[in-house]
Amino acid sequence: MPDATQPTSDTAALIDALAQAAFVTMGALTRIAADNDLSLTQLRALAILRDRRLRMTDLVEYLGLEKSTLTGLISRAEARGLVHRAPHPVDRRATEVFLSTHGHTLAAALEAELAASLAPVMEKLDPAEQHTLAHLLAKAVATASTRT
Amino acid sequence: MPDATQPTSDTAALIDALAQAAFVTMGALTRIAADNDLSLTQLRALAILRDRRLRMTDLVEYLGLEKSTLTGLISRAEARGLVHRAPHPVDRRATEVFLSTHGHTLAAALEAELAASLAPVMEKLDPAEQHTLAHLLAKAVATASTRT
DNA sequence: CCTGATAAGTTTGTGATACGAACCAATTTA
DNA sequence: TAAATTGGTTCGTATCACAAACTTATCAGG
Q: I want to staple A82 with a disulfide (CB 3.0 to 4.6 A). Which of A77, A138, B60, B126 is the partner?
């Protein structure tokens, strides 16, 4: 609100489009999660941990949750054999979390389900457009820190 | 995932990019929701209803939830004055849901917060790229039926 | 070295989510 | 018009998510 109109109206349109896309994706993900006896949040955690090994605090940042919430979430996931906890090599206060073999397997299956679910959406774009879209999304999201 | 499924392998990359973008957006949305004393799901419902008047069943489809879950969700939102319920004009079994004035106001505020939160992400693309991305996302998501 | 001040995680308690199963009422099918 | 089917709600149970209080560690400053 301090600086107005700075974001070209294109930015507003982009935010809206991105939100719409995210909402559609969330709908699909919510269904997929439920089908696999997971909550959307748990699915998100698995996806995020798929190519990362994070400290609890960092995962909290990715998910947008409170620390206390994550404790229970990870405890349940660990009890189900989806993730492991390990003490941080340097900071003895910290705990690192990462996927188990089982977790990786499940994550891969979930991705396949998502791909199947979003196929009808993707088909609306020709190969060239798909390529461009993937490129732009990747560029925008690369190490994106949204913070507050 | 080197091998291609049915479509081009670009599709896999696109699914991944879209998922990444959705995860980043969800992180921001989760924080925004919590800051406004809403759950992510409730925020999603508000956003979806912003430009639509839907029957419970249709909203269930958008959100990817079970009907019984939505009943409670909408009841609480209604109790807070965010949405209204009204009998469907034709089908007497059905109930339509739509935002109240208060709900619209809140939804607008939430969008502003999202825009602020995603600004750093958007800034990684130049205006032309932003325009292209918005266009492609809009095209892909237009009346998207993800279904299972 | 100590002594706060901070940071990382966990525990606890409470309300909100989300599912499935059972149920009622209205609509559709046969 | 009887038999499905559909649209929503209610109920019971497990998970989710927050805030507040607490335990260890790490980090400053003197």
A: A77
